[in-house]
Amino acid sequence: MDDTVTNRLDLVLRNELSELERLAAAVDEFIERYDLPPGLGFKFNLCFDELITNTVSYGYGDSGPHEIRVRLESDAVEMRAEVEDDAAAFDPFDEAPPPDLTSAVEDRRVGGLGVFLVKKTMDRAIYRREGDRNLVLLAKALA
Questions:
Q1: Ramachandran class of 111: left when φ > 0, alpha when ψ lies in -120 to 50, beta otherwise
Q2: What PANTHER family would the database entry show (predicted)?
């Protein structure tokens, strides 16, 4: 994340799905506080919901407490986010199965559609592993 940006939010979430509500409210407040385009809140919350739900549901090998850190920042050009967790290493943009977009909904296998939506919603969606941490970087232009 850029140290020169002043529009910034840093949240630490518990590895519980109920935390998505708190995150969505914080994202909406961030959008409003910095007078950013309202549609950005929906787009980022959609992506956070997908990524964090997958992490909480499938990423941990134990039922113990874990922290998921979400950082947001914006400048005159774009809004960026970073999602960091200590779940098992998993690159959703490379390892998630491609979605079946041709079969009838009831015939499709589960998996892949949410990550597909993240990639289509954001201008950039990048994964990297640093030590024992997963980092997902998201960016969307303001215009």
A1: left
A2: ANTI-SIGMA-F FACTOR RSBW-RELATED, SLR1861 PROTEIN
